[in-house]
Specification:
With 513 residues, this protein is an alpha/beta fold. The protein has helices spanning 37-45, 49-54, 93-110, 120-123, 129-144, 171-199, 207-220, 231-237, 240-246, 303-318, 363-376, 390-396, 408-421, 432-437, 454-463, 498-510, and strands at residues 6-13, 23-28, 66-70, 79-84, 114-117, 161-168, 224-229, 254-260, 273-277, 279-283, 324-333, 345-347, 353-355, 381-386, 401-405, 425-427, 445-446, 470-475, 481-482, 492-493. The chain is elongated and about 80 Å long. 55% of the residues are buried.
């Protein structure tokens, strides 16, 4: 397979006007009355080339827009990319992240191997330099990502690597930017890793292969340890939910546990967090089979579990002073003579029984075992993430994930992390009314409710397995994939959840949340 584009982001002490680079990136607000100091200096060197684009309105500075001006030997850069930042009063850290992503995306398209970012100059002191460095680092990885492992054609191919430097002449500001760039690069690499694994098809990633991948990540990353339960061990432990879903496939299910145990003494005084991610490596729907249209996208039903795996990698590299479990129940949901059936009653890991009414409501069956495992490990906080329900996509579209919780404090902390990470969430209910719908006449619970409020009833089902623990559920159906490329991202898996979960854990570690 072809290697995914290799990206490197660093900071560099340099004058943006003089730095030698293939592409210098600067920002411009749509409501600016004129050019900022850096753009004025560049404009002067270029004989008014920037003004000739801006003043007639050819480039208005709208968010998501860009324009190219050529250096022609008058400045250090071969090209200057003007990136629109929208209205300054509405600018957030995600504005900068998206601008960096757009720039990286353009750089890959133009085969510009070396890029210099000076986006932070346009913001002045609106955001602290550490945060600016972090979001620019994250944005570069996000925008430059291409999933082309299986593309064998070489003609007109992209460059094999992209080198990006955040340039700043002031040494004091540079040190802060450098700290942020370092963290942003770790998170950005983790998200690109998640996008790579999520995009891989069902014939490349099965539950046993995903388990081996998790072992490799743990082996390569100090602070991580990985344990994998095979089907025999799951039977011994009574993990009936995962076993039922995986029963119809030749690829046996796996229950993956990654533990992060830092050396920091403060970690022993912090809450233990359990992240639980749904990893259905391919979801046909089982006997309740899905329509054929777009079924190829069901390779992405492992996105929640992959987000947890990548998050564990990121927090270990960030050396956060927290104890965290990454719990990834994994199965392939296939129809066969051995598949679980509608009408079956499954005994889950918790001992609760579930009547199967639809085998395509399989995600909650593996997550309930994962959530109860987190309870057994005495996690204080449990967060599960999954491409769980089409209902959530109907409710919220492709723009944000559904967020449900039994604890208002945890819900607010995740909303704060969503705002910082740019991975949006919207709070939905999962209260007792919805839980009533999940009661069965022949078992403790059933795995589907009515056709109304499906995201809420699914969350209410999962809530039954968290007990008294602080728990939150993130339904990322709809935000797991870019169906078409846009100005800052290529089509395919989005890697949603990596930035959100990592931001939450960074906040928790710093006791700011």
């Amino acid at each position: 397979m072809k290697k995914i584009i290799e990206v490197e982001v660093k900071s560099k002490k340099a004058d943006p006007v003089a730095v030698e680079t293939d592409l210098l990136v600067v920002g411009h607000f749509s409501d600016s009355k004129g050019l900022d100091k850096l753009c004025r200096e560049l404009d002067g060197r270029l004989g008014g080339a920037i003004s000739r684009v801006v003043e007639p309105g050819d480039f208005k500075g709208k968010e998501g827009s860009s324009a190219i001006v050529y250096g022609e030997g008058k400045v250090g850069a071969k090209r200057i990319l003007l990136v629109g930042l929208g209205e300054k009063k509405k600018a957030t850290v995600d504005t900068v992240r998206k601008a960096a992503a757009l720039a990286a995306n353009k750089a890959v398209e133009m085969k510009a191997g070396r890029v210099s970012l000076a986006l932070h100059n346009a913001l002045g002191g609106k955001f602290d330099a550490v945060t600016m460095g972090q979001v620019m680092g994250e944005g570069v990885y996000f925008g430059s990502f291409r999933y082309d492992e299986y593309v064998t054609a070489e003609e007109n191919g992209r460059l094999g690597s992209l080198k990006v430097e955040v340039v700043e002449a002031d040494s004091k500001k540079l040190r802060k930017l450098e700290k942020g760039v370092s963290a942003g690069s770790i998170i950005g690499r983790a998200q690109s890793y998640a996008r790579t694994i999520a995009n891989r098809p069902g014939n490349a990633i099965s539950p046993p292969v995903l388990a081996e991948e998790a072992k490799s990540v743990a082996k390569e990353t100090p602070g991580l340890a990985c344990t994998v339960f095979d089907e025999k061990q799951m039977k011994q432990n009574g993990m009936g939910g995962v076993l039922a879903v995986g029963s119809g496939s030749k690829a046996a299910p796996r229950f993956i546990v990654i533990k992060y145990a830092p050396k920091a003494k403060r970690a022993s005084r912090s809450a233990v967090v359990g992240l639980v991610g749904k990893a259905i490596t391919f979801d046909s729907g089982g006997i309740s089979i899905k329509p054929a249209t777009n079924m190829e996208q069901m390779k992405l039903d492992k996105s929640g579990g992959v987000a947890v795996l990548a998050t564990m990698k990121a927090i270990a590299e960030l050396r956060l002073p927290l104890s965290v479990y990454g719990i990834i129940p994994s199965a392939e949901n296939m129809p066969s003579g051995a598949s679980f059936r509608p009408g079956d009653i499954v005994t889950t890991y918790s001992g609760k029984t579930v009547e199967i009414q639809n085998t395509d409501a399989e995600g909650r069956m593996i997550l309930c075992d994962g959530i109860h495992y987190a309870v057994r490990q005495k996690c204080d906080i449990i967060i599960d993430i999954a491409t769980l329900t089409g209902s959530c996509k109907v409710a919220l579209g492709r723009y944000m994930a559904g967020l449900m919780s039994n604890d208002d404090g945890l819900l607010k902390q995740l909303q704060k992390a969503a705002k910082l990470s740019g991975e949006k969430v919207w709070a939905l209910p999962c209260s007792d009314e919805y839980a009533e719908e999940m009661k069965s006449k022949v078992a403790d619970l059933k795995n589907t409710g009515s056709k109304w409020g499906g995201a809420c009833t699914a969350a209410a089902f999962l809530r039954q397995f968290a007990g008294e623990k602080k728990w939150a559920h993130i339904d990322m159906a709809g935000v797991d994939v870019f169906e078409k490329p846009n100005e800052s991202a290529s089509a395919g898996a989005s890697g949603y959840g990596v930035r959100l979960l990592t931001s939450y854990l960074m906040n928790l570690a710093s006791r700011k949340s």
